[in-house]
Structure formats: structure tokens, C-alpha cells
Amino acid sequence: MSQLIDGKALAAKMREQMADRVQELEKKGVTPGLAVVLVGEDPASRVYVTMKEKACAATGIYSVEHKLAAETTQQELLALVDQLNNDEKIDGILVQLPLPAHIDEGCILNAISPLKDVDGFHPFSVGCLATGNPTFRSCTPYGIMKMLESIPYDLNGKEVVVVGRSNIVGKPVALMCLAENATVTICHSRTKDLEGHVGRADVVIAAVGIPEMIKGSWIKEGAVVIDVGINRVADKKLVGDVEFDAAAARASYITPVPGGVGPMTITMLLFNTIQSASQRVAK
Ligand code: NAD
User: Fold this and answer.
1) Which of 94, 121, 230, 232 to mutate to test the pocket of ligand 1 (most atoms within 8 A of CB)?
2) Which residue from 121, 189, 239 has its CB within 8 A of the most atoms of ligand 1, so it is best to mutate?
3) 209 Cα to the center of ligand 1, angstroms
4) Which atom of ligand 1 is nearest to the CA of 165?
5) Structural domains in the chain?
6) What's the gap in Å between 229 CA and the centre of ligand 1?
7) Residues with Cβ within 6 A of ligand 1?
8) Atom of ligand 1 at shortest distance to CA of 240?
9) What spacing in Å lies between the alpha carbon of 164 and ligand 1's midpoint?
10) Which of 34, 40, 111, 133 is deepest in the core (most CB within 10 A)?
């Protein structure tokens, strides 16, 4: 039977340490500041933004929300990003995705200063990660790496199989594992023999968005399983991308859903914001 990697507990521990770090920065006259930009009325985005703001408040980070109407133009949003890029009180800028269809997401993300790109989505940040000199690492994959660091497990030389190739999870987590000297395979919707790839993995990272598509019987005995998926099924129940009970019977370590990767994502947003503010002190 496997051991759980408890993301909720790890997140709570990290947030306590971060609150101490914020107090140290306060003594040096710097309050870390995060600007959150929400365009439109997407209910899930509203929930995420509120969670982020509450987490900031609990850690002592100053956060300011810019709530814009759904019909905001791209020019207006670019003007706000420009203003925040130049605001000395702001160390991190988060534009909540998805944006309304008439706004080019790439154009907006590119306009955020790489010095304040705490979501790690700017091509500069992605390029730095790819070339082995990371600046800001995107929050979900960074949280996964912190979870892997929290267990007695060395990625060096291990076979990591990432299922999913999105820009926010699959690709960056693959690069992060590569930087830890793992041998990394990225599987996606066109992959042939997914079961075969998963079956030889020492570490499986599932980021697909299909409830329980990775079968427990595919998991190699003793493998580490990181389940990024958050899928709402009948009776509002949340399940991951991995068939939990059957996978837990074979894995050495496994993350639960909920309470696994989810709480780590916001934690790493706070972490990146504090990192950015620390650079302000260093100047
Ligand atoms: P996405 O839809 O952008 O990407 C899904 C990926 O899965 C694609 O690359 C696709 O190629 C791959 N895929 C689809 N069908 C497949 C199949 N049959 N076999 C193999 N690969 C297949 O999704 P995403 O944004 O990366 O999110 C993935 C999941 O992770 C979702 O459930 C999402 O809710 C969750 N998520 C959780 C967090 C968190 O904080 N815990 C953060 C981001 C995403």
C-alpha cells in the first residue's frame, strides 16, 4: 500500500514559512504585492481569484484585484498591464485565464514584465526554464516538484512519464524533471500504447483532464504517482485522472484528489511573489 503525498499539509507548512519570510521583508520596508486581473464573470475564475486573495492575506502579501467587464478591449487590458508593470508596489501580476474570446491571451501574457511574471507563462520565463536558468517557474509544475522533493526520492536517472502536453502543466513539469536528470517521456492524445509507457514509469505525472483514465493496473509496482487532474463527476465529487484506489495498491507514493497538487498551486504563486519582492530588496 502506498503513502500519501499530502499537498494540503505541505502547502500549510510552506505558507507558515512564507509568512515568516514576509515579516522579514516588512522589516526591510518591502511588502510583497500581487495584482490579480479578472476579466468577465467566469464563475470558476471568480472562485480561483478569491482563493488566491485569501491566501495572500493569510501570508501577509498585499493583493489588489482589478475586476474588468467582459467587454473590456485588448487595448484597455494592455494599458492596465503596462500600469502594473510600472507600479512599484506590485511584485507579481496574474491575469486570470481564460480571457474572453475577443482578447488574444498570448499578446496579454507577453506584455507582462518578465520581472513580475509570477505565473511563469511569459515566453521569457519558459525559455529560461528550457535553457536551464529558470526565473519564475509556473505554479502547478513547481508545486509538483516541491511535492517530489518532500519524499525520500531521487529523480536522477528515473523514468518519468508525463501524460498531457499543456503549456501550463505537461510541458513545464517535463522540463523540470529533465533538469533533475530524469529520463522524461511526454504522452498526449496521439500517443500510441499509453498503457505501455505508463507501465514502465518510475514516476507517473497525469495531467489530462479525463476522470480516472489512467488505470491502477497500468502502474508499475512501487512507482510514484502524481495526479494533477481535477474532474467533477456525479454528485459533485472530485476525482483525478488516475484510478486512485487501484493505483494506490501498487504505488509507493501517490497524491490524493482533492488535497494533492491543488493546494500547492496557489502556494507556489505566493512563493514566486515573495521571490520577486526579495529581488526588490536586493536592488
Ligand atoms: P489541457 O486540456 O490543456 O491538456 C490536456 C492534455 O491531455 C493535452 O496535452 C492532451 O494531449 C492530453 N490528452 C488528452 N487526451 C488524452 C489521451 N486520451 N491520452 C493521453 N493524453 C491525452 O489540460 P491542463 O490544463 O494541462 O489540465 C489537465 C488537468 O489538470 C485538468 O483536469 C485540470 O483541471 C487539472 N489542473 C489542475 C491544476 C491544479 O492546480 N491541481 C492546475 C492545472 C490543471
Assistant:
1) 230
2) 189
3) 4
4) 9
5) 29-114 (3.40.50.10860), 139-262 (3.40.50.720)
6) 7
7) 140, 163-166, 168-170, 187-189, 191, 194, 207-210, 228-231, 261-262, 265
8) 32
9) 5
10) 34
pLDDT tens-digit profile, the chain (283 residues): 799 999 999 999 999 999 999 999 999 999 999 999 999 999 999 999 999 999 999 999 999 999 999 999 999 999 999 999 999 999 999 999 999 999 999 999 999 999 999 999 999 999 999 999 999 999 999 999 999 999 999 999 999 999 999 999 999 999 999 999 999 999 999 999 999 999 999 999 999 999 999 999 999 999 999 999 999 999 889 999 999 999 999 999 999 999 999 999 999 999 999 999 999 887 6
Distance (angstroms) between ligand 1 centre and the Cα of 228 equals 8
Task: Please work out, in degrees rounded to the nearest 5, the angle formed at the alpha carbon of residue 66 by the alpha carbons of 126 and 35.
Answer: 45
By alpha-carbon position, which residue is closest to atom 21 of ligand 1?
A: 188
* pLDDT value of position 272: 98
